[in-house]
Each structure stands twice: as C-alpha cells, then as structure tokens.
C-alpha cells in the first residue's frame, strides 16, 4: 500500500466490513507510476447475494421505509458535510487511483459529488404525485411516486466518485437501497465513501459495496431481487446489461459511449474554439464519454484551427496528477495506454491522416501524449470509433448544409458542441444534431439540475435533475370512491 494511503479495502455489507468469500484479490495501480497502491477483494456470488439480501431487508425495514422525507434529507446532508470536510483526502485518493490531475479531482469531481448530495437532499421533500380529473363519477384519483427497491449501481473508472454520486444521491433521496460495484481499476474513493455512510447516520444495509471484476457485475445484474440497474460504461457492456434487464423486466438506466462532434463554423472565434476544444477533448486525458473528439471545421479555417489545436496540445505538461503544474495526467491503465497508441498508429499508418508533432512520452506511468490528426475523412477509424484517450481528429467541410448529416453519421449520440458567432446558425445546428446534450460556444459543463444522458448507442434514460427522480421511482395510481 502507498505510504500515504490509509483506507479500509474490505467490502461493506449490511454495515460490516467483509473480506469477501471469493478468495481472490485485485490490485489497483497508481497510473502515474505503475506501482500497486493496494489490493481489494474479488467478491464471490455469496458476497453479492449477501449484499443484495442486506439491501432487501433494509428496504423493507421501518427504520428506512418509514423514515420521513425530511429525516432522509438530513442524512444525505450529513454525508455531504462529511465528504466536504474530507474533500482534500478524497481528491488526492481519486488522483492517485485514477490519474486525473489534482486540479480536476479537487476542483471539479469532488465538489460535483458534494453538490449532487445536497441537490437531491432537497428533492427528498418535494417528490409529488398529481391529482387527475377523471371522467368517472364520484372518484378521486391521485398518483404517488414510490421507490423501486434494491438498485445495482455499477460505476466506471473515469470519474469514479462523481459518477457514483450521480446515481447514489437520487437513489437515496427516493428511498431506495443500493449495492454499488465500482470499476475494479478505481475502487478506492468508493470504499472511502462507504466509510462515511454509517457516520452520516444512514441505516445499515441501505448502502452496500462489493468489489471485483465483470463477473461480480454480472452476478449483481442477474440477481432476482435487484429491481433496477444503473450503469455507466462501454456500449458493449451496456447492451449485455440491457438484454439481461429486458429478460428479467428490471428497470435500467445506461450512460454509454460517445464520439462527440464539435462543429466550428467559418465565423467562429477560432482562438476561443481552440481553447474550449482542448479542454473538451483532453479533460481527464480524453477519458470522458462526452469528449470532443471529431472537429468539423470550415475548409477556410481548417489549417489554422488544426495547427493551433496541435500547438496547444503539444504545449500541455504531462505528469503525475499530484505534481504541481500538471496539465494532463496518465490514462488509467497500461491496457488503455496501449489501446490509445494503437489508434495513433492506425490513424497515421492505416487511415493515412496527418499526425501533427507530439511531445514524447516520459515517466514510468501510463502516459499518452495528445495526438492531433488533420485532413481526416469520415470513414477513417479514428473518426468513427470511440478511443477514450487523447486522440483528436480534425475534418474539413465545404458545404454547411452537409454538417448535420455528417455530425449525425455515428452510432453514438451523447453530446455535441457548436462554435459560431451567429447564434441563429448555432441553435439551428443544435436542434438538428442527435445528441442528449449540445453545448454552444463553451467547453463541457455539467450541473446536478440539468438532465444528462444519450441518444442512440449512447444509452437509455437520463440522470440528474428531475429525470433522475423519475429513473429511481415508479408511479402508483390510487382510486378512491367518494359515494
């Protein structure tokens, strides 16, 4: 274990720390050095069953089921306060385990997690039904929103704590209980958060954590007592979960892959677009589902944009996330590093795109210097396939009328961005691009109040805002005869 990491690594089941029955252990690495931080247990099926059973009992217990909404909100606010008080340790742990620069974990990821807890604590006392004027005499009709039951929260490795909270906060606000399965590459902030749950006063069994790889996730998805699966990750795994959920008629929310287009019109502020696209394309080393990855630039501005984008990317300082001055950290694993470099080779040697000068890779960790390609065409693999790394493709266009079709020529539809000084042009493009979120003249931004999710192969359902309340509840109609 790293000398500066003080953490329980057992699983949390029914309020107890459990070493697990699977017998195996999974190392988690510091991607900035390649060194092992610690090991976490590989859960067995018995551990998954115990966690789901604990969540089922807690869901039906008077202590949780009959808790007043204001009391539930208070527990969530307690957890938010504990997380905020420990924010520096959480940010350093996230950076050590995942690789993102400390400025990202401390300035964005951890505060966003705190914000989500407080935002959904507010919703706990405001979840209302409706009364309906029926065309049936002497009847009062109203609806309730009720929790679903045991929810499986399966989280990714790119923003482990933040994306967990996108799921956990609304699940708790609506009165569900949960079993969390963090990505095996980055489990540590989830386990640290589990250590705060009892301190916040949340009853035992309401929040459970099991650790392990894909088999643990499959066991959780297949458990008959799991009412809902909320998953963020690859489209391939999302399809498997959706198929299983369909057979078992479980509720499911999926936030999956992306290949976000960034449209830069002829009249755009090129320098602002370069700055925003560098942030949108290289945040977290490009390991963002909504990363700006394919840039459609008016042919008259293509060379200027590509050269400025490449110069800005080459000037970024790569280093360990805890090192002062680091602009971009490593990717999460050796596997992800090799995958990104394979795509750089494909773009250069197979697709035949022009690769601009890159900084050399340095250090012992999993570093991938940003790669900017220009003269890219729509059929090239680097323009079509999700890479999840710092590989950016610049594509010229001549006819503005072709932009919508080209931007939409993808299986994905999570996010997009438009850069134009003409707000009418920008909004017409935004209305025609098939993506769950479209930003105009800005780097990517998120807020707990703004619904988030994808179209097409980028997922099912929405998180954040009222959408997440709907995702973790079901509607009951109550008819009362008044005669």
Secondary structure blueprint with pairings:
Blueprint: E1 11-13, E2 16-18, E3 24-29, E4 36-42, H1 45-60, H2 62-65, H3 69-85, H4 87-98, H5 102-123, E5 139-147, E6 150-154, H6 160-173, E7 177-181, H7 188-200, E8 207-209, H8 214-222, E9 226-232, H9 235-248, E10 251-255, E11 260-264, H10 270-282, E12 292-298, H11 299-314, H12 334-350, E13 354-355, E14 371-374, H13 381-384, E15 391-397, H14 403-408, E16 415-419, H15 423-432, E17 437-440, E18 459-460, H16 465-471, E19 473-481
Helix pairs in contact: 3-5, 3-7, 4-5, 5-6, 10-11
TL;DR?
With 483 residues, the chain is an alpha/beta fold. Helix content is 40%, strand content 20%. It has a seven-stranded mixed β-sheet, sandwiched between helices. The protein has a six-stranded mixed β-sheet with strand order 8-7-6-9-10-18, with helices on both faces.
